[in-house]
Amino acid sequence: MKRSLLSIRLLNKRSRNMHIVCLLPYLMECYLHIRQAAEKLYIHRNTLIYRLKKIKQDTGYDPQISQDAVSLRLAVWIYRTLR
Predict the structure, then answer these.
(1) Could you list the residue ranges that cross the membrane (predicted)?
(2) Cα(17)–Cα(45) distance, rounded to whole angstroms?
(3) For 6-15, what is each residue's pLDDT tens digit?
(4) Pick from 56, 26, 22, 21: nearest CA to 38
């Protein structure tokens, strides 16, 4: 079940989930291409895949599905704006 954008924002306050805020802009910039995003982030491709699975588990949104990625990106934008 997907959580609301507000709950994602609150989830982002926990330091262990800050990778949501850090990863998504790069993933969107690379049009959801994992290899390219991993190179830009200077992390291994498998590390990025693990973190994306963690985001899906924590939020209910799959960053590898374009509609969910846009929702997550909007949540990140709201989070950064309110911060």
Answers:
(1) none
(2) 19
(3) 555 555 555 5
(4) 26
The reply to whether CATH 1.20.1630.10 applies to domain 5-82 is: no
The predicted-structure confidence for 50-77, as pLDDT tens digits, reads as follows 999 988 887 888 989 989 888 888 888 8
Domain parsing of the chain, residue ranges: 5-82
Residues 6+ apart with CB under 8 A from 23: 37, 41, 48, 51, 52, 55, 63
For residue 8, the model assigns a pLDDT of: 58
Give the integer Cα–Cα distance in Å for 21 and 74: 11
Amino acid at 37: A
pTM of the model: 0.77
- What tokens appear for 27 in the block? 């993933």
